Amino acid sequence: MAIKLHHLRPAPGAKTDKVRVGRGEGGKRGKTAGRGTKGTGARKNVGANFEGGQMPLHMRLPKLRGFQNPFRVQYQVVNVGRLAEVFADGGEVTVVDMIEAGLVRKGHLVKVLGNGEISVALEVTADAYTASAKSKIEAAGGKAN
């Protein structure tokens, strides 16, 4: 015979009746109803996070997170491999040319990274270069200004 859903029952003692506290002195939890004697907790409801008038934890912690360095210089990056793809004819490449080609956005500093291969002689003008980018551009016969 297969067991069916309506045959299932909780284990004996697993389900007990809800304890109704404060129902007379005869019961286990009559009179003080598990609240102890006297004090605020015995007289009215107090939040679990109440610290007795001390400045609460959620107000002691700082409101804003982290630190923003006002002197940080943030660059938009372009790899030499991408420059070689877009400017395959060689020649001079400025930040304005990169903006027009859609490689970077207007109004930000540009840094050239050395990821990828370059075989075209490019005269690149940018705000910053990595050492590998500079050496790759110069190895291809170009110039990094």
CATH architecture of the domain at 76-144: Ribosomal Protein L15, Chain: K, domain 2
Strand order of the largest sheet: 1-3-5
Q: Mean pLDDT, nearest integer?
A: 92
Number of helices: 5
Q: Under CATH, the topology of the domain at 76-144 is which?
A: Ribosomal Protein L15, Chain: K, domain 2
CATH class of the domain at 76-144: Alpha Beta
Distance from first to last alpha carbon: 87 Å
Helix share bin: 10-25%
Let me know the largest β-sheet: 3 strands, parallel
SSE arrangement, N to C: HHEHEHEEEHE
How much beta, percentage-wise?
5-15%
Question: What oligomeric state do these chains adopt?
Answer: single chain
Give the C-alpha Rg.
Answer: 37 Å
Molecular shape: elongated
Strand-pairing-aware structural class? alpha/beta
Number of strands: 6
Q: List unreliable stretches of 5+ residues.
A: none
Region (Disordered): 1-52
Keywords: Ribonucleoprotein, Ribosomal protein, RNA-binding, rRNA-binding
Protein name: Large ribosomal subunit protein uL15
Pfam families: Ribosomal_L27A
